[in-house]
């Protein structure tokens, strides 16, 4: 299986470190930014690459996945070397270690097919990723960059506590509590999240309780949100109480969604929207681990 590694040297775990060598004749590509990624992927498609090894975080994977359909007539298989901070996608797709790449190329890996979350907005090419948030979720992502240390679940816990502190006492208190004018429906929304990933996002973090078989899981909290800290604790565990449902905390599953928020975060990066953002989940990628 012809393979190429796309390595992001700016990803959290790669920063300042040399690349771990891979066995065999793997084509090595050092990513320098999104501007040349289209041409890079087109060149790899022309070379007949069948396995893309993404050495980076969730944002690196989003940038690559968003461009794959324009470069490859048929999407290649992917393997993820977890080089980011939280590495949510690698936790679900299965992280590959550099020493295992030769085995994967020989057909000895496990295949997992994950649905992509596609976000379409006016005046911009579609984004393809796995988790998208709005309202206070967007603010929390910025707070994570400002205050967060560490990786994975501990970083998420610190970010949640920092967001609650700022909602109560910080300069962003008013804007955090007001949320956004419109999320998935009429009325203000404090925060919301949508994903195509199944199961807990991280150990102990599963903020969804909607039923059904549709591929997009979503949850949204109202603004203003009564008993915010208590409601957040139950919501993040996917165990809403009766008073939360009556107060407007909602969760469900859908094939498509339309988001009215003026900005959102997809896989760790903020994007603006001049109009509605249409979410769908008809596309898939196959991962090896």
TrEMBL record:
Source organism: Albimonas pacifica
Listed GO MF terms: kinase activity
Annotated region described as Disordered, given as residue ranges: 1-23
Name this protein carries in UniProt: Diacylglycerol kinase catalytic domain-containing protein
Lineage: superkingdom: Bacteria
Domain DAGKc intervals: 1-123
Annotated keywords: Kinase, Transferase
Annotated InterPro entries: ATP-NAD_kinase_N, Diacylglycerol_kinase_cat_dom, NAD/diacylglycerol_kinase_sf
């Amino acid at each position: 299986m012809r393979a190429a590694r796309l390595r992001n040297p700016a990803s959290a775990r790669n920063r300042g470190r040399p690349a771990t060598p891979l066995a065999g004749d793997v084509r090595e590509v050092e990513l320098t930014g999104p501007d040349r990624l289209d041409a890079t992927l087109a060149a790899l498609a022309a070379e007949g690459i069948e396995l893309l090894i993404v050495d980076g975080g969730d944002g690196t994977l989003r940038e690559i996945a968003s461009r794959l359909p324009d470069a490859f007539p048929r999407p290649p298989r992917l393997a993820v070397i977890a080089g980011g901070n939280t590495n949510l996608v690698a936790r679900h797709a299965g992280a590959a270690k550099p020493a295992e790449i030769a085995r994967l190329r020989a057909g000895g890996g496990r295949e997992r097919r994950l649905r992509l979350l596609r976000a379409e907005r006016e005046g911009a090419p579609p984004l393809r990723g796995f988790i998208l948030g709005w309202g206070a979720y967007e603010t929390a992502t910025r707070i994570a960059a400002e205050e967060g240390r560490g990786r994975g679940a501990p970083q998420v816990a610190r970010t949640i506590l920092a967001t609650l502190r700022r909602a109560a006492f910080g300069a962003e208190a008013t804007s955090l509590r007001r949320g956004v004018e419109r999320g998935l429906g009429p009325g203000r929304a404090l925060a919301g999240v949508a994903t195509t990933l199944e199961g807990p996002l991280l150990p102990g973090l599963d903020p969804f309780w909607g039923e059904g078989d549709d591929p997009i899981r979503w949850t949204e909290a109202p603004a203003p949100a009564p008993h915010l800290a208590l409601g957040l604790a139950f919501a993040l565990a996917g165990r809403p109480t009766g008073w939360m449902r009556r107060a407007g905390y909602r969760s469900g599953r859908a094939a498509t969604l339309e988001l009215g928020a003026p900005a959102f975060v997809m896989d760790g990066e903020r994007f603006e929207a001049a109009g509605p953002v249409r979410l769908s989940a008809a596309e898939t990628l196959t991962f090896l681990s």
